[in-house]
């Protein structure tokens, strides 16, 4: 088994992979092309599978402490009437943890704190894996992965989903009556995540041609959502214009033929970028990270371990990506009035357990053990001895 790994990309998936490999005895270097880690981003919801993966990496308790459980909320119409309710307590009973909302910046800092500072090399751009001296290369370089493009030159790469997203975190704490909420209009979605410090993240997903940008995006949103319910307008009012982020949503609509090529393993968005409609993108990257480290720890050799990683992750992530695509088409992307009316009626009539069962379908995942055969845990420097979720 090789002992030196290079992780290309210092995002959630790359840092998680580095933690898993470090905890199982690898010498790890994370190469991040950014010169400064500004922790840009808004917020994230982590379902039980993501939290369980973080538990396996030893950082779950820190994430729970920094985050806020999502117990209340659901889906509304633009006028504010309720379509469905989220039962976070039922999810916690079923899975042992609620969904957790946390600023991405906080999650990034927690992940980095679980690694020796010497692991992270900033301002390092990787253009070819041939230049990397390592027994294992983890390609966690995101949606527009250069490593993926080099390994699979015939793959079409990212495809525009038809939607763009604007998001921000409020400048100050806000008073909300729910932990997490979505509002669906005609091809539009507005949602929020409440954080432990009282602030909230909001996002607006809009149908749009790619590349459209606005001089004052917050003013555009104020006009677009002027007749939506009070919470939407309240969150926009609580936001500074300079804090609004705007990104087009792309996905890997055509699956890769493999997540592995020689000594290279692809992970996260580099392997399976998916639409955001199930909130599973980061959770799947975390699953990737734990599975990769566990398979390599189990041996007997790197090639066999990488083959098992590929066999485990491609079917799982492919199914979740397809489900996310369907969720978007049948949910916030609907524009026809009759189709929207039918959707809204179905949501209102659905039994209370239906939403819980839908979430369980993707969130009920148990991580493999990270302890290799004959290996005595040397992860005490990570600050937590948790090895796996139960």
Q: Can you characterise this structure?
A:
The protein has 390 residues and is of the alpha/beta class. It has two domains: 4-68 and 98-158 and 251-332, FAD/NAD(P)-binding domain (3-Layer(bba) Sandwich); 161-249, D-Amino Acid Oxidase, Chain A, domain 2, CATH 3.30.9.30. The chain is 37% helix and 20% strand. The chain has helices spanning 12-23, 48-56, 60-66, 88-95, 104-113, 146-151, 217-224, 230-237, 269-272, 281-298, 302-330, 337-349, 352-363, and strands at residues 4-8, 27-31, 43-46, 68-70, 73-76, 82-85, 99-103, 120-121, 136-139, 159-169, 180-184, 188-194, 200-207, 245-251, 260-261, 264-266. The strands form three sheets. It has a seven-stranded mixed β-sheet with strand order 6-5-11-12-13-10-14. 46% of the residues are buried.
CATH superfamily assignment of the largest domain?
Answer: FAD/NAD(P)-binding domain
By DSSP, the count of extended strands is 16
Q: Overall mean pLDDT score? A: 92
The radius of gyration computed from the alpha-carbon positions, rounded to a whole number of angstroms, is: 21 Å
Shape: globular
- Assign the CATH class of the largest domain: Alpha Beta
